[in-house]
Amino acid sequence: MKLILGGLEDGRKRSVFTIANFLRLMNWPWYEIEEKVIEWNEKSKQPLPRNIILGQLRWNQQNSMNPANCDVDTFYKSIGVCQPDSVCKNNTNKITIKNPINYPFRVMKKGKKFPGRAVYKCSVCNKGFRSMKSLNIHKARMHGQ
Fold first, then answer.
1. Is the Cβ–Cβ distance between 47 and 84 less than 8 Å?
2. How confident is the model over 31-43, as pLDDT tens digits?
3. Residues 60, 17 contacting (CB under 8 angstroms)
4. Class of the domain covering 115-145
5. What is the pLDDT of residues 8-65, one digit of tens each?
6. Which of 21, 54, 87, 99 is the 20 to 30 A CA-CA neighbour of 64?
7. CA distance linking residue 121 with residue 56, whole number of Å
8. Residue 112 — very low, low, confident or very high, per pLDDT cuts 50/70/90?
9. 3-state helix/strand/coil string of 68-90
10. What whole-number distance in Å separates Cα of residue 77 and Cα of residue 140?
């Protein structure tokens, strides 16, 4: 996702699909997803026409799908954004992440902070959460609040 958001020359239309679905599954509000995709498009050397961006966003808003799996050559490898790191390989030589949506959860599981979104802390046990909703569920279950 970092490489896609950095800007692309090829695969921009496919990347709109990937960005929108990834951020939706990360519980971003839809208006923030739209802002991010439009901002990303404007940074591109050859921005896609606004009507294509808006059409893709509307379609993604109405059709809930996961981003393409990492092994789908036409999505990531063909545009040069699949560069597996130690998180993808989980300290082995074999890639163990099958979908980009798993990456931030693996990072969080390792105890690293995933950049870009706020982490909400429990005031009782100081445990971190990615959303206020998760924090509230935790407080209700663990602390009876």
1. no
2. 899 999 999 888 8
3. yes
4. alpha beta
5. 777 788 888 888 888 988 888 888 999 999 998 888 888 899 899 999 899 988 888 8
6. 87
7. 35
8. low
9. CCCCCCCCCCCCCCCCCCHHHHC
10. 43
Q: Which two tokens stand for residue 38?
A: 């439009």
- Domain regions of the chain by residue span: 2-62, 115-145
DSSP string, 1-67: -HHHHT--SS-HHHHHHHHHHHHHHTT--HHHHHHHHHHHHHHSSSPPPHHHHHHHHHHHHHS--PP
Which comes out higher in pLDDT, residue 79 or 31?
Answer: 31
Helix axes 30-43, 50-62, angle to 10 degrees: 150
Do 37 and 57 contact (CB within 8 A), yes or no?
Answer: yes
Q: Which residues pair with 129 in a beta bridge?
A: 120
CA–CA distances in Å: residue 6 to residues 34, 39, 84, 139: 17, 11, 16, 37
d(CA 103, CA 82): 12
Looking at residue 6, what is its pLDDT?
80
Residue type, position 95, single letter: I
User: How much is the mean pLDDT over the chain?
Assistant: 82
And the tokens for 145?
């609040």
Residue 3 tokens read as 């490489």
Q: What is the DSSP letter of 2?
A: H
